[in-house]
Amino acid sequence: MAQLDVRQKLEILADAAKYDASCASSGSARRNSLKAGPRGTKGLGSTEGMGICHAYAPDGRCISLLKILLTNSCIFDCHYCINRKSSNVRRARFTAREVVDLTISFYKRNYIEGLFLSSGIIASSDYTMEQLVEVARSLREDHDFRGYIHLKTIPDADPELVRQAGLYADRLSINVELPTEGGLKRLAPEKSSVRIEGAMADVAGHIAEARDARRFRHAPRMAPGGQSTQMIIGADSATDGDVIRRASGLYRRHGLRRVYYSAFSPIPDASAVLPLRRPPLMREHRLYQSDWLMRFYGFAPDEMVDAADASGMLPLDIDPKLAWALKHRASFPVDVNRAPRELLLRVPGLGVKAVGAILSARRWRRLRLDDIGRLTVSVARVRPFLVTEDWRPTTLVDRTDLRQLITSKNNQLELF
C-alpha cells in the first residue's frame, strides 16, 4: 500500500463510508462536558439523544459526525461491496491514533459532534475489532471525550471485544447485510446469518445485563443507544415481504433500536451475479414507511406484508398505510368522535400528532370535517375513510376507482 498522508486517507475512507446508512444517535446517554469526570477535570464534547451524522434535531439543528472507515481493505469478497478483496479501488488505512487525532481536531473546529467508525476486515476479525475498541477507549479515557460514538462491530470477533466496545460506544451495530439466508450465501458466502444473529444476541444480552445493573450507582453503561443493523435492498431477489418479515424478527429477537434499509447501488467492476440497475429509491422509502407503521402505528408484520401486491412488493405510487386501507375497506369509515386511538392511527393521512390532537379536541366538542382538514395535508385523502359531525362518506369508500381519486399524480417540474 502506497504511503498516503492523513488528508488523502480521509478523502478515500470518508468516501468509502458513505454506503453505510445506519447513522443515528437516538437513545444515547447525555454527557455534560462542563461536569468534572472521573479524572477530576472537565471533559471534551457533549452529546444528546437526538440525531447525528447530518440528521436534523426536533428544533431544526443539523447535527453531524465524522463518518469514516478505519480501512477499506478487506479479506472478504462480498459481491455487493465496493471494498471487497477483488475490487479495483484505491486502498487506505488509518491507525487508531490517527482516527483519535482527527476526531479531536474536527471537534475543536466545531465540524462534528461525534464519530461513526466502521472498517473492512484486516488480518482477522479480532484484530480489526481490537483497533476499533482502541479508538473508542482512547477517546473516552485519554481525552475524556463525551461526544457520540457509534462503532460498527465485527460479527466473528471475540464476544469480549464486542462487550468492551459497548462500554465506550453510545451505539453498536452489526450489519445483517441481506434479507434472506439464500441471498447471503450467494453474494457473501464467507458470512453467516447464524453468526451475525448470534453476535446480535450477545450484544442484546450485554445491554440487558447492564440495564439491570443500573440499580448500582457505579455500574458501567453498555451502549445506551442500543444496537442497530442495515439491510441492502435490491442486490438479490428478496421481496419487500421478505424484508419486512426479517426486520420484524430482528426487532423481536434482539430488541434492535433501528433497522436501516440501503438501496443497492451498482459498483465499479461489479460481479456478474449483481443486477445492472439499482432499485428505485422509492422502494427504500416505502420500506422505511412500513417499518415506521410497525413501530409506532400498531401494524403487525403480516398486515404490512398484506399491503404488498401478489409479487410481494409494496406499491411505489402509494404509501403502505393507504395500500392496506384499500385492501381492508371493511375497517372503514372510522368515526373521529368515537373511535379509539388504535383505529384512528389506521386512517390514511392521519399521523401520530394529528391523532393526538383529535383525541384532545374531541373531549370538548364534536369535530367537523374542517377541523380534520387543519390537521392533515389533504382532506380529500382522508374523507373516504372517516366520519365526522358533518360528513359521512356513504358509498365513497366502496368505489372501485377510489385509488385513482385520492392518488395525486407526480409531474416532473420544469427547471426553467
Automatic annotation (TrEMBL):
Record organism: Sphingomonas changnyeongensis
GO molecular function (one): iron-sulfur cluster binding
Lineage: Bacteria, Pseudomonadati, Pseudomonadota, Alphaproteobacteria, Sphingomonadales
Domain annotation Elp3/MiaA/NifB-like radical SAM core: ranges: 64-290
Cofactor: [4Fe-4S] cluster
Protein's recorded name: Putative DNA modification/repair radical SAM protein
Keyword Metal-binding: yes
Domain of life: Bacteria
SMART domains: Elp3
Residue stretches spanning the membrane: none
Keywords, in A-Z order: Iron, Iron-sulfur, Metal-binding, S-adenosyl-L-methionine
UniProt keyword Zinc-finger present: no
